[in-house]
Write a structure and sequence with these properties.
This protein is an alpha+beta fold and 153 residues long. The chain is built from 3 helices and 4 strands. The chain has a 4-stranded antiparallel sheet with strand order 1-2-4-3. A hairpin with a 2-residue loop joins β1 and β2. The protein is elongated.
Length: 153
């Protein structure tokens, strides 16, 4: 796995990740072998379906599964190694994959800013004390009574 830091704009980061073609092919073949052992298709004995037939029928979904697993694993490793805390879900841009070439994708995301520890004991905070005269309280009580009061006959 090869990681290159493409660009950084404030909290917006972009990383391009390349995974070697032989790693991808090995994982696809491994999944294909696992599928071959369990496959039960009409016209074939269980576990005896030819790999070429399975690749034609399920190759695209196997590749998609391997790509998703690789994206998850390499993204997780990147975030742990670089100590990045995500602010949002990454936007993943996958380059077109052709057999025998490296699998390449770009992660675009925003990270949380690093906040330095602060000594709050150095802050001076003054607490305001409000003094309300008794006449003001009485005046407001009368206003509320007039608004809510009912006339009884």
């Amino acid at each position: 796995m090869q990681i290159s830091n493409k660009k950084q704009d404030g909290l917006k980061l972009s990383f391009t990740i390349k995974i070697a073609a032989n790693e991808i092919e090995a994982k696809i073949n491994s999944k294909l072998n696992d599928l071959q052992k369990m496959a039960k298709l009409p016209g074939f004995r269980p576990g005896k379906v030819p790999a070429k037939y399975l690749e034609q029928r399920f190759g695209a979904s196997l590749k998609e599964e391997v790509f998703n697993e690789e994206i998850q694993a390499s993204s997780k490793k990147l975030f742990e190694d670089e100590k990045i805390k995500l602010a949002s879900r990454p936007d993943i841009d996958v380059k077109e994959y052709k057999a025998g070439t490296d699998f390449e994708f770009t992660l675009n995301f925003e990270s949380l800013p690093e906040i330095e520890e602060f000594d709050y004991s150095k802050l001076n905070i003054s607490k305001y004390k409000v003094i309300i005269p008794e006449s003001e309280i009485t005046k407001q009580i009368e206003v509320i009574q007039n608004q809510i009061g009912r006339a009884h006959v």
